[in-house]
Structures are given as C-alpha cells and as structure tokens.
Design brief:
By secondary structure, the protein is mostly helical. Helices cover 58% and strands 5% of the residues. It has four domains: 41 residues, no CATH class; 93 residues; 67 residues, no CATH class; 60 residues, no CATH class.
C-alpha cells in the first residue's frame, strides 16, 4: 500500500488532483486518468544540464545574429545586397564585384576587401578568445565544485585552484577532460584508465592534508621544519623553491609541507606569482 505522502507526490508529478489519484487506486475497475501527453519529469541534474545547454545555445545564436547584422551593414555601404550569411561568403562576393568593375573602382574595392578581411580575422579572433575565456571560467568553477566540503580554512578556493593548476594541467581529449602531470596522464594504478577529475582533486587535497579529517605526521619533515627560515622578499615560485631547499636540504618540492609553505607566502603577499 502506498503511503499518503507518496500518493500526494505521485499526484503532484502527474499534475492531477490528489482525490482523483486516490479514487483511481481504490477503484476496482480500469480508470483512465487525464495526464498530459507532453508531461516530462526531470531530475535536478537533468534540469541543470538542460539550463546549461540553453545558455550555450543562446550564446551561439547571439554571435550568429551579430555576424548577420555586420554583413548586412557592409553590403549597404558597398551598394549591394549580400546573398550569403557567413563572413567568408561576403568576402567572396566582394571579390567577384571587384573583378566585374573597371580599373578605377578596382583599387578602391580591393582596399575595402583587404580591410574587410582584416575585420573578419579580428572578429573571429575576438569571438574565439571570448569563447575560450567562457569555457575556462566554467571549467574553473567546475573544478572548485569538486573541492571537498570539509576542506581546511587556511587557504581560499582561488589560492588552492592556482596551486593545483601550477602542478596539474587539465586537457580535453576525446570530449573528456583528463589530468596530466608534465606529459603523463594520471591513471588508475589497477585499471590504467585516466583518473576522473573529481578523484584527482580529492587525492590532491588528501596528499596535502587540506581536509580537516586528515591529520597527523605521515613521515619526513614536519610542517614546523618546512617553515624554517625567512620568506621575506620571495615574490615568485622559483624563489620560493630555492629558499625552501636552502632552509630544508633534501626537501621534497611536491610534498604537502612545501604546498603549505607556498600557500602561506601567497596568503601573505597577494602579488606572489605562481607561474614564475
């Protein structure tokens, strides 16, 4: 027997009255309920994916309309109506117009074609750059979304993101993002399949004791020793590595202690450069 709560939830999902659904259940005869043929029930994850796809589709449509408007304006200024809807087709039409005119007009139109070609390349570069920036910002947001909820409070999410990306690169291969150290893809030791991005992030946090429930000395130099020496005047990663090895002979630059050492410097100096 269905619970009252479940009955109400099912009736709500089917968008019918509670009493109609209750009556249909109790009726010993076959009952036809009025349920919309276009009714669709989506999980939260499916709704999120749908909304994200609509944003991407809208962005593409906006860029297409901008190009069409540009082509129409050029045609108006050049005294003809373009037939194509792409910049490449417009250049071809203008070239044909140049070839059909007399010598006096050829130079002027040719100059205009050259300027238009340059404008096309500039517009294409601009659109490509914006698309790349959009994808990068979205991916960075996804990476932070994989950070453990119980992460420590000693660094901000942006500081952790910079440290992770200075050690690990994330590239798209075959439509899937994989993590790399150097030129090597990080893989599962048993299956040899690429590690999922969320697993890479979890492992990175665990190795560096960035999670509150990870405690204790795992061997080697402790946090206290890793902070020996002055960090005054250190402005970039190269200087931090040199000073750390000077203060900690034989120290490991990929250890949790070094990550904490760099994190402390970066937190104290917002101008600290992770990439130099």
């Amino acid at each position: 027997m269905l619970s009252t709560t479940d009955k109400k939830r099912i009736a709500t999902l089917l968008r019918i009255k509670d009493e109609d659904f209750e009556a249909a259940i109790k009726d010993e005869k076959e009952v036809a309920l009025t349920i919309s043929a276009t009714l669709s029930v989506l999980e939260e994850a499916e709704l999120t994916a749908r909304d994200a796809n609509k944003i991407i589709e809208g962005k593409g449509e906006g860029e297409t309309e901008a190009v069409k408007k540009f082509i129409k304006e050029v045609g108006k200024k050049m005294g003809f109506e373009p037939k194509g809807e792409r910049l490449g087709e417009l250049v071809t039409e203008l070239q044909a117009k140049v070839n059909s005119t007399g010598d006096d007009k050829v130079k002027t139109l040719q100059d205009q074609v050259n300027l238009l070609t340059a404008d096309k390349e500039t517009l294409t570069t601009s659109l490509t750059k914006k698309d790349s920036e959009y994808k990068q910002a979205r991916f960075d947001s996804d990476l932070i979304g994989h950070f453990p909820v119980s992460r420590t409070k000693d660094l901000t999410d942006q500081e952790r993101l910079q440290l992770i990306k200075s050690n690990i690169s994330f590239v798209e291969e075959g439509g899937v993002f994989v993590a790399k150290k150097g030129n090597e893809i990080l893989k599962d030791k048993n299956t040899h399949a690429p590690l999922p991005v969320n697993q890479v992030i979890t492992d990175y946090f665990t190795e560096r004791s960035w999670v509150d429930n990870v405690a204790g000395d795992k061997g080697g130099r402790g946090v206290g020793n890793s902070m020996v020496g002055s960090t005054a005047g250190i402005k970039n990663m190269s200087q931090a590595q040199a000073q750390y090895l000077k203060d900690n002979p034989g120290g490991n630059l990929i250890s949790p202690q070094f990550s904490q050492y760099v994190g402390a410097i970066a937190k104290a100096d917002v101008q600290f450069n992770m990439n130099e």
